[in-house]
Amino acid sequence: MSDLMEDPIAGAHKEAEKKKQPKKARVISESLKKFREISAKAAAGGPPEKIAAQKAKGKLTARERIAYLTDEGSFQEIGLLVESRCTDFGIKDKHIQGDGVVTGFASIGGRKIALFAEDFTQLGGSLGLAHARKIATIMDMALAARMPVIGILDSGGARIQEGVDSLDGYGEIFYRNTKCSGVIPQISIILGPCAGGAVYSPALTDFVFMVKGISNMFVTGPEVVKAATGEEVDFETLGGSMTHASKSGVCHFVANSEQDCFRQVKELLSLLPQSRYEAPAPEETKDPENRKMAILERLCEVDPRRPYRVHHVIWWLSDDHKFLEVHHNYAKNIVTGFIRMGTQVVGVVANNPAHMAGALDINGSDKAARFIRFLNNFNIPILSLVDVPGYWPGVAQEHGGIIRHGAKLLYAYCEATVPKVTLVLRKAYGGAYIAMSSKYMRGDLNFSLPVAEIAVMGPRGAIEILFSKQIKEAKPEDRDALRAKLAAEYSEKFASPYQTASIGSIDEIIEPASARERLIGAFRILSGKRRPGEHEHTGNIPL
Question: What residues are annotated to the active site?
């Protein structure tokens, strides 16, 4: 036996003495030391003065943005040490690891995502060929792994020093944006300048976020505009967040700060599936399905010409009164966005009588059509809330192509194979009634409220055509009473929901207070209409 076994107490003393002896310093190999130094330098980003300049603009660095957006400790970087192969203008000699973009994988709310974040502190975040290939690699892997891809853009555009290589790099990204379209969700976050060819990648993605005061998008900057056209314009007016949110329609969401922007991105992502091969995950709620809709009872009591914000109806229909509106500032006559009904995600397309009486126009048709195509791509059922007087009249609309743009809405609804449920709230006239997911456009279940008016045109306009002679022949003091009488008779015979229901153009007239329960039930009936991934693949082309 050993001494330790013979004398346990003595053995314990020997062990204690060993612990008292100082530990030898661990020798780190030169190769490991070099690796850590290079990695730390690469992760640090640009030089301190560039980082300070970024902070002075109220902007975060690329890695800070990733940390705010993703789950703590989840980011796994790919391509940390990639450098440009360009040998001109001293680019190669600068040894800029990462080449101005951080790429990798992370999780948001426990869900895997791929992302890239351009680093403005390194060569102004400009895109060279190595930069582009890093982004392309991440997109390829995201497509193969069926996960969303998020791009954080903050770049001076194409890297002039690399010439046509940088333009080729944009081509690689645009191609992948198109191949990913309709397969995995693509989200773009603009947190700085985005100019020239760089703007087209976000435009090809599904959703674009911008932040007031720091985000800009334009094909040609203010100086080029002035030189070419003589127009003087500043960056914010030309391509700021509100310009693109309200005028061009490029931007879907506007935030007050970067942190607010990341919160919105997380909320959106929670409503989306990982890919076309899945459906959005349900979310439990304590909101009862049979909660009564007093607001719709009141709607039945007001003048049909009185405007109201359809948002209130949407809030009351949704679980816990939550509604994430898409394109809030653009084409306000049509409201689009996401809600949950009975725990399941539903996409809403609604006419908004508070703006342009809810009529369809060029921008509204484009806005709704692209949103519908997104919903169809990603297995999200469609709820259409109809209160539409027709198409917005005017020379500008006709010459601007309302026929062509309006046809996009028709095409999107007809093409969609997800469950489609329609509720006519008040009026549904003419071609606009047909366009808003009517029965013979293959709406699955079409309901109306008892006060709905469904007709070729509104009663007041119809009687002026049908009874013009009778009205002219009446005494001037009797004409208003005659018009009211004729309009009431026309409504009863030609615009009544009961008449529409009798010929099967709507499936049922429903009790207003029970609308939430009936609509949830309708979507539940249609839940097996198709399986995710089995539908025909169509990309979400910008309309």
Answer: 196-197, 431-432
